[in-house]
Specification:
alpha/beta, Aspartate Aminotransferase, domain 1, Aspartate Aminotransferase, domain 2, 2 domains, seven-stranded mixed sheet, four-stranded mixed sheet, 16 helices, binds pyridoxal-5'-phosphate
Length: 442
């Protein structure tokens, strides 16, 4: 047994953990000390099946040699290069490789360090784009109820998850929200895209009429809303959003931080749903979750609009110290190699029917009020305990962990998104474990 085990520190107070019930955790810590392929190793030596690809990011599975070797080699060769007014080859190579797998027309990439930063970057590009085109009155941003776009001020302003917004004042001004698409009464237990709710997209027309198109810069949505508990776009919904945005000169941003890099069975959700946005935000699977990195894809039309004025002038006053850093770029290139060698950007399409069948076999388990799925994503919505929302799903999370399975819960919804390398046997194991958990929670 590795000597890394049983290294639980005896003082957990200093680290204020993110999106965590800190007091609960510190009374009974869940420490991970190793990982390989589909499993984590816990500090007590147990193997934990990863039902969530970490946080929707470890798409190729854990500790893949090509990626870890590329990082080690890059760290010894060129550890850092200034990101502003200087370059290094791997960032350019990576941008080209990303453009190759992105939807046609997404020809340029800005690098960031996270999904949240990708969102801030895309929103700023949208505002600046209209301004460089002489259309600076387009300053409004439209998001959607229940949307998650990270935790920075732009992202929580266009986002629609109340707990993530309510503590932080008035947020950005000039933001409006479309209604979410969750219609459990009509769509519960739908396999894949729901039949009902495509027409909710026309609410965008109402918002455009209210504010006037000339004031609106961009609409941002997750093609599949992930963090709110997996809301699959109803049939026709995304196409309708595209039509309305095009009609009114509004930029459409797909936040693909979760759906990017193969989660639905195509490299991006834009390809899966055959709807072309003007920008795509990504992160997570870009480096297989190993090194923080994000990327924003933009069309040539957007990019080219900025390429004007004196050539010695900076065209867009935005960027991060670590934009396209050498080690992150090396990790991302090795990740793309791994995806390519193993066909992982399309594997979810092959395994999705089996995943769907096994997931929906939990329909008769106690407390289950809805099951939703697309690609290698699944959600099981539980009936909340009266007066104690989130408690039932959190109990399921704790019990699953004790039983050797990592799931994710949000509200009373269990969200599943395993690494794209998962085998049929591991899918069976995952749902067997989950069935036992659901039968065991009060
Ligand atoms: C759609 C979406 N956008 C943005 C983010 C934020 O990403 P990060 O946590 O890397 O900042 C997430 C994270 O889950 C996400 O799902």
């Amino acid at each position: 047994m590795s000597n890394r085990l049983n290294t639980t520190p005896n003082d957990l107070r200093a680290f204020w953990m993110p999106f965590t019930a800190n007091r609960q955790f510190k009374q009974n810590p869940r420490m991970l000390v190793g990982a390989k392929d589909m499993h984590f190793t816990a500090s007590d030596g147990r193997q934990i099946l990863d039902g969530t690809a970490g946080l929707w990011c470890v798409n190729a599975g854990h500790c893949r040699p090509k990626i870890t070797e590329a990082i080690a080699q890059q760290a010894g060769e060129l550890d850092y290069a200034p990101a502003f007014q200087m370059g290094h080859p791997k960032a350019f190579e990576l941008a080209n490789r990303l453009v190759d797998i992105a939807p046609d027309g997404m020809n340029h990439v800005l690098f960031t360090n996270s999904g949240s930063e990708s969102v801030e970057t895309a929103l700023k590009v949208a505002l600046a784009y209209h301004r460089v085109k002489g259309d600076g009155s387009r300053s409004r941003l439209i998001g959607r109820e229940r949307g998650y776009h990270g935790v920075n001020f732009g992202g929580i302003s266009v986002g629609g998850i109340v707990t993530n917004r309510k503590m932080f004042g008035t947020l950005l001004t000039g933001v409006d929200h479309m209604p979410h698409t969750h219609l459990p009464a009509q769509n519960a237990f739908t396999k894949g895209q729901p039949e009902h709710g495509g027409d909710i997209a026309s609410e965008l027309e109402r918002i455009v009429t209210l504010h006037d198109a000339s004031t609106i810069a961009a609409v941002i949505v997750e093609p599949v809303a992930g963090s709110t508990g997996v809301l699959i776009p109803p049939k026709g919904y995304l196409k309708k959003l595209r039509e309305i945005c095009t009609k009114h000169g509004i930029l459409l941003i797909f936040d693909e931080v979760i759906t990017g890099f193969g989660r639905l069975g195509s490299p991006f959700a834009a390809q899966h749903y055959d709807v072309m946005p003007d920008m795509i935000t990504s992160a997570k699977g870009l480096t297989n979750g190993v090194i923080p990195m994000g990327a924003v894809f933009v069309t040539s039309e957007i990019h080219d609009a900025f390429m004007q004025g004196p050539e010695h002038m900076i065209e867009f006053f935005h960027g991060y110290t670590y934009s396209g850093s050498p080690i992150a770029s090396a990790a991302a290139l090795a990740t793309l190699d791994t995806y390519k060698e193993e066909g992982l950007l399309t594997r979810a399409a092959e395994i999705a029917p089996y995943w769907e069948e096994q997931l929906h076999s939990l329909k008769d388990c106690p407390h289950v009020i809805d099951i939703r799925n697309t690609g290698l994503i699944g959600a099981i919505e539980l009936d909340p305990i009266v007066g104690e929302p989130t408690k039932r799903a959190f109990s399921a999370f704790l019990k699953a962990y004790d039983d050797g399975l990592l799931i994710r819960t949000t509200g009373d919804i269990i969200a599943l998104s395993p690494p794209l390398i998962i085998s049929k046997e591991q899918i069976d194991e995952l749902f067997e474990k989950l069935r036992k958990v659901l039968k065991g929670v009060a």
